[in-house]
């Protein structure tokens, strides 16, 4: 996920209170539970900000476990909310929903480039979009947002728990998706548990750092950017 983060003045305290209240309400709706069965279709979701005021959201749908591309869509438009640390999902979710409306196939699981519950208020974009759509979802992020962990072993597939700094709660797993590359941070978003989220991330690896759903979403984002420039 590409982040455009130039300097912004401090956020309006009233806006921060409003967004915090919304996240706390949405957090109450998150359900962490095993997936009833393996998905047949899995989607990869990615958003980037070509300019400070525009957003490009891409969704690809793949078969599972074959990971063959079924469909790809995008939506490009303005983004009105200023960047506020910890609340990026509010900038991304509206445009992702517009992209989702363009799909002609319905994925069983959403794999989002970003965090699920591995977020200070347990509401990263993977959880946020999962709750809004009431779909099983997980987040796969390239950087840690919160929590403590031990570096996993160098072998592909090695992992270690990501724990809340204060409570010790399991909020994700740190996954070595490829040897000699930095690990990924995998966390459930909604209607999935940690074991299922990690299993899906592992089964979607095809020799790259990123699992195929988010890797291809990122790949097509670069292609679609040429169309909107």
From TrEMBL:
GO terms for biological process: DNA repair. It catalyses: Endonucleolytic cleavage at apurinic or apyrimidinic sites to products with a 5'-phosphate. Mg(2+) binds at residues 46, 113. The keyword DNA damage applies. GO terms for cellular component: cytoplasm. Keywords: Cytoplasm, DNA damage, DNA repair, Endonuclease, Hydrolase, Magnesium, Metal-binding, Nuclease. InterPro entries: Endonuclease-V. GO terms for molecular function: deoxyribonuclease V activity; magnesium ion binding; RNA endonuclease activity producing 5'-phosphomonoesters, hydrolytic mechanism; single-stranded RNA binding. Its EC number is 3.1.21.7. It comes from the Bacteria. Its cofactor is Mg(2+). The record marks 83 as: Interaction with target DNA. It is found in: Cytoplasm. Belongs to the endonuclease V family. DNA repair enzyme involved in the repair of deaminated bases. Selectively cleaves double-stranded DNA at the second phosphodiester bond 3' to a deoxyinosine leaving behind the intact lesion on the nicked DNA. This is Endonuclease V. It comes from Hymenobacter busanensis. The lineage of its organism: Bacteria, Pseudomonadati, Bacteroidota, Cytophagia, Cytophagales. The gene is nfi.
């Amino acid at each position: 996920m590409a982040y455009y983060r130039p300097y912004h003045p401090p956020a309006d305290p009233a806006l921060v209170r409003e967004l915090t209240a919304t996240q706390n309400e949405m957090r109450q709706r998150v359900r962490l539970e095993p997936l009833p069965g393996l998905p047949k279709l899995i989607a990869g979701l990615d958003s980037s900000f070509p300019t400070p005021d525009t957003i490009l959201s891409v969704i690809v749908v793949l078969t599972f476990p074959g990971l063959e591309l079924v469909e790809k869509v995008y939506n490009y438009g303005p983004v009105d909310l200023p960047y506020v640390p910890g609340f990026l999902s509010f900038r991304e979710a509206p445009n992702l929903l517009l992209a989702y409306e363009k799909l002609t196939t319905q994925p069983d699981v959403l794999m989002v480039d970003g965090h699920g519950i591995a977020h200070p208020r347990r509401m990263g974009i993977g959880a946020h979009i999962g709750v809004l759509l009431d779909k099983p979802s997980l987040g796969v992020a390239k950087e840690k947002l919160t929590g403590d962990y031990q570096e996993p072993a160098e072998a592909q597939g090695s992992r270690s728990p990501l724990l809340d700094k204060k409570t010790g709660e399991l909020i994700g797993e740190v996954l070595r998706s490829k040897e000699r590359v930095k690990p990924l941070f995998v966390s459930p978003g909604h209607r999935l548990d940690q074991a299922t989220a990690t299993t899906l991330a592992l089964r979607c690896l095809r020799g790259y750092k990123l699992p195929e759903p988010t890797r291809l979403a990122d790949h097509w984002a670069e292609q679609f950017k040429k169309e909107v420039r």
